[in-house]
Amino acid sequence: MESATRQHFFSHIPGNEGFETGKRHCHWCQIRSFQTHEQYPITIVNDRDDEVLSPKFSFVETSIRARDVEPTRKEFLSGCECVDGEDCQYNTCNCLQDVEDDSSDEEGADGTYGETYRKKAYAYHSHGVKAGRMRSEILSTRNPIYECHESCACGPDCPNRVVERGRKIPLQIFRTPNRGWGVRSTSDIKRGQFIDKYMGEIITAEEADRRRAKSHIAQRKDVYLFALDKFSDPDSFDERLRGAPLEVDGEFMSGPSRFVNHSCEPNLRIFARVGDHADKHIHDLAFFAVRDIPRGEELTFDYVDGVDDSEKDALDPEKQKDMTRCLCGSKRCRGYLW
Ligand SMILES: C[S@@+](CC[C@H](N)C(=O)[O-])C[C@H]1O[C@@H](n2cnc3c(N)ncnc32)[C@H](O)[C@@H]1O
């Protein structure tokens, strides 16, 4: 048993002095208060050493908006009008994203071939054993996912509300031999299955920069900061998408996915997930499995997802000195995290 949990059981007793404060800072109390605790618990185990999770860290079930981050006003939100949730996988659903499809080699109505068509991207399988899992065509892309949401006419059982319905697997935070804490599941996971969201404090770009500057090693702070920049566009008509994006800081407040380590050959991928189209600047970050993962295998994702210069830098002995060595152990390891 992880010693923080042990402390809960043996010294964290109602009536004892400091009980209320103790309870607030107790990781076990925090994860036990999650709505999904009975069905999909989070556990913490350490079979290797005496290390405990930092007392500065708290588990939260949802992200927390900083005071200066405004939610979208209700009158700007608009959902689909699908009366039957089944309709939310078809072209008529307003929530799905329009994508260009130039893969068609079918003859068009006017007799031409190879035209670009507009179609709607529905991210999930809706029937059979794969229901609720991400479709392969989407899983291999970096496309955002558009889901139905609170302003939609469809109900909570709509097949296009996978991330909204939340985590459906138990997660275990465990002590790895060489990379601090890591995460695994005690259940088998299927390719395309939703794992969890990356949670944290949603802060402005200016606040993120202040925190980077305050952090002992700025690069270390970057590990926990995720920019919500999937839709950033200097030419957007939405001014919130033109400027520097909001960021999610998971260092001190987050869920279990904050402990997921990097691998150069990962089994998870992170996707931007949008509810309302008016909320693109505050999109979710959702982890999905890119292959079947047997229970007990460590969950990992690629921290840079192929988009940085570290491979080039790793060849330069001068730059290597400032780089973090990757210990993912995969055959395709690039050698450095960044
Ligand atoms: C987001 S945290 C992941 C949880 C972390 N292991 C912990 O104990 O809190 C990222 C940090 O984990 C470590 N880490 C993650 N993946 C790694 C890897 N493949 N090789 C070496 N260190 C890694 C690095 O110290 C990195 O700064």
UniProtKB/TrEMBL annotation:
Cellular localisation: Chromosome
Domain SET, chain residue ranges per copy: 169-304
Key words of the record: Chromosome, Metal-binding, Methyltransferase, S-adenosyl-L-methionine, Transferase, Zinc
GO cellular component: chromosome; nucleus
Keyword Cell membrane attached: no
GO molecular function term, any single one: histone methyltransferase activity
Post-SET domain: residues covered: 322-338
Cited SMART domains: PreSET (SM00468), SET (SM00317)
CDD domains per the UniProt record, alphabetical: SET_SUV39H_DIM5-like
One of the GO BP terms on file: methylation
Zinc keyword on record: yes
Protein name, entry field: Uu.00g007770.m01.CDS01
Gene source species: Anthostomella pinea
